[in-house]
Amino acid sequence: MKLKRSLGLAIALGAAIATTSATAWDNPADRYANANKQYTGAACPLAADKIEHFVYFSRDRDAIRDHAFLTSDRFVGAQIMYAWRQLEPTEGHYDFSLIQSDVDYLAKHGKRLFIQLQDASFSPEYKPVPDYLVTGEYDGASPRNMPTTEPSKAGSPSAGTPRFNSVSRHCFPRSASSSTA
User: Fold this and answer.
1) Cα 125 from Cα 23, distance rounded (Å)
2) Which residue pairs, CB below 8 angstroms and at least 24 apart, start in 56-59?
C-alpha cells in the first residue's frame, strides 16, 4: 500500500513539475518571432551610392524567375555561378546558351548578369570541370598539371606540349603566345 501511495505521489509531483516548467519557460528564440514586423513597408536605410548590388543565387538559375529583386531599383542584377562543365560539355565544344538565356531574361527586367565561373568545388561529389579534364591526360585535373599564366614555369610539367598549348590558347591567350608550340 505504501508503495502504491509513493508511486502515485511521485507521478503526480512529476506531472505538476512538468506542467509548471513548460508554462514558466520562455523559449529565447520566440523573442524574434515578430521582429520583422516593425520593418514592413520601411524604406531602404542605405543611402544611394554608386556601388552596384547583385543578388547572389549560387547555381540556382531558376530562382531569378519572378524574384522580388526584379522590381527593386536597389539591385542592378543577379550573380549566378556556372560550372565549367555546363559551358564546355565536350572537349572544345562550348555552349553558352544558359548564360544567354539568363542575360535575355534579366535584360527584359532592366537587370544585368554577374557571371561566376566555377572550376573548383569543396564537395567531392560535385565535379564542376568537364569530364575530359578528369583523365590521365590531365592527371585527373590535378592542379599541378593545370595551365598557369606562365606555361614554361616549373610546377606545370605538361607546359609546352601541343595539348597544353591548345588549352592555353582557349583559356589563357596571353600565355599561349609565349609558349613554345
Assistant:
1) 46
2) 57/81, 59/83, 59/118
Contact 161, 167 (CB under 8 A): no
Could you report the per-residue pLDDT of 69-128, keeping only the tens digit for each?
999 988 999 999 999 999 999 999 999 999 999 999 999 999 999 999 999 888 888 899
| The three-state (H, E, C) secondary structure of 19-40, written as one string | HHHHHHCCCHHHHHCCHHHHHC
Cα(181)–Cα(16) distance, integer angstroms:
85
pLDDT digits (tens, 9 = 90+) for 148-158: 444 444 444 44
Angle at 53 between CA 49 and CA 58, to 5 degrees: 165
| pTM metric for this prediction | 0.53
Is residue 79 classed as helix, strand or coil in its secondary structure? strand
